[in-house]
UniProtKB/TrEMBL annotation:
EC number, UniProt record: 3.6.1.55
Gene Ontology MF: a single term: 8-oxo-dGDP phosphatase activity
UniProt keyword annotations, A-Z: DNA damage, DNA repair, DNA replication, Hydrolase, Magnesium, Metal-binding, Mutator protein
Species of origin: Acidiphilium cryptum (strain JF-5)
Ranges for domain N-acetyltransferase: 18-183
Catalytic activity, reaction form: 8-oxo-GTP + H2O = 8-oxo-GMP + diphosphate + H(+); 8-oxo-dGTP + H2O = 8-oxo-dGMP + diphosphate + H(+)
Keyword Hydrolase annotated: yes
Cofactor: Mg(2+)
Gene Ontology annotations of biological process type: DNA repair; DNA replication
Family per similarity comment: Belongs to the Nudix hydrolase family.
InterPro entries registered for this protein in UniProt: Acyl_CoA_acyltransferase, GNAT_dom, MutT-like, MutY_C, Nudix_hydrolase, NUDIX_hydrolase-like_dom_sf, NUDIX_hydrolase_CS, NUDIX_hydrolase_dom
Pfam families: Acetyltransf_3, NUDIX_4
Name of the protein in its database record: 8-oxo-dGTP diphosphatase
Length: 334
């Protein structure tokens, strides 16, 4: 049971199927009526059962005070007719730059989208208005509905544990811990660009990721294409085509294992430059990455020859035309 608040000048906020407003002392009786339900209290660590009216009044009073002090931002969820149907909000941890999310909906109003709409708005408001970088949530491990809601909202599981629930004295129950960062939420809402229709005569665009592996002596690994492949005998940077839906970084992790038998992590590659070249039948776009860390020793897994080449000798190796403009950049950098 955490809280959410909108500015005093905006006492209500429409959120999907629900309306939100700051929790008020006058809500205590309705708060008690809704929360005094075993199916709700058993899922809330801080909720006793039965839930006395006096406890509801005290909790709402504390929520109002916490909002005034900036410690928590408690919020009532209203149905379309203006009646309170639940509560949600955020409680700040200033030292950690985070906030804890909590929410509950009266049982009669489950499965109507109110909780999901309220949580979505809480996330956007919290990251926009509060000095936090992370929002966390702890949920009972058997609360499948809330787990699904958090995952739909973009939360990622961060661990498991146990917690005491007041409504179940003496029991330490398994819980799941979740978190979402401001950056993760922003990335979820970046709309994919609309595809642009290619001119009728345009060549197919082929996207290939390549990696310049640099050893401790500053040499770069080149691979020679084996007989039977297009451009056989030419030397190139290891890499390959992207699979549908694959990122360049993920493609490099896969290709390095398949081609060279080494383990390369996504965080070990850094974008360096890119090549753009029109071949007769297609147009190649090739981002080139640099990597200085990997596990294992590169070995030819696909019949190719390998060579560790000092930067000032790269010109001695015949390469595809798309690769050659990258050589001066590498020499200058290394």
């Amino acid at each position: 049971m955490r809280g959410f608040c909108v500015p005093d000048s905006a006492t209500r906020e429409t959120v999907g199927a629900a309306v939100l407003r700051p929790l008020q002392q006058e809500d205590a009786a309705r708060f008690h009526q809704l929360i005094n339900d075993w199916d709700i209290c058993r899922r809330l660590p801080e909720a006793p059962f039965p839930y006395p009216l006096e406890t509801a009044e005290a909790w709402v009073a504390a929520a109002v005070a916490d909002r005034a002090a900036g410690r928590a931002h408690e919020f009532a969820i209203l149905d379309a007719d203006g009646s309170m149907i639940g509560s949600a909000g955020l409680r700040l941890d200033a030292a950690r730059g985070s906030a804890a999310l909590g929410y509950w909906i009266g049982r009669r109003f489950w499965r109507r989208g109110h909780a999901g709409a309220a949580v979505a708005e809480l996330l956007h408001w919290g990251f926009a208005e509060l000095p936090i970088a992370t929002i966390e949530a702890t949920v009972a491990a058997d609360n499948a509905a809330s787990i699904a809601l958090l995952e739909r909202a973009g939360f990622s599981a961060t661990g498991r544990g146990h917690a005491k629930f007041i409504g179940q004295p003496g029991a330490s129950l398994p819980v799941m811990r979740y978190a979402i960062t401001r950056e993760a939420l922003a990335l979820r809402h970046l709309a994919a660009p609309e595809p642009v229709a290619a001119p009728a005569a345009a060549k197919p665009l082929v996207l290939v990721a390549a990696c310049a592996l640099v050893d401790i002596e500053g040499r770069i690994l080149l691979a020679r294409r084996p007989p039977g492949k297009k451009m056989a005998g030419l030397w190139e940077f290891p890499g390959g085509k992207l699979a549908p839906g694959e990122t360049p970084e993920r493609a490099l992790v896969r290709e390095m294992e398949e081609e060279l038998g080494i383990l390369l992590r996504e965080e070990d590659v850094a974008p360096f430059a890119f090549a753009s070249h029109a071949y007769d039948q297609f147009h190649l776009l090739m981002p080139l990455y640099l990597a200085r860390r990997w596990s294992g020793t590169p070995e030819p897994r696909e019949g190719q020859a390998l060579a560790w080449v000092p930067p000032d000798r790269l010109d001695e190796y015949p390469m595809p035309p798309a690769d050659r403009p990258l050589l001066p950049l590498l020499r200058d950098f290394l």
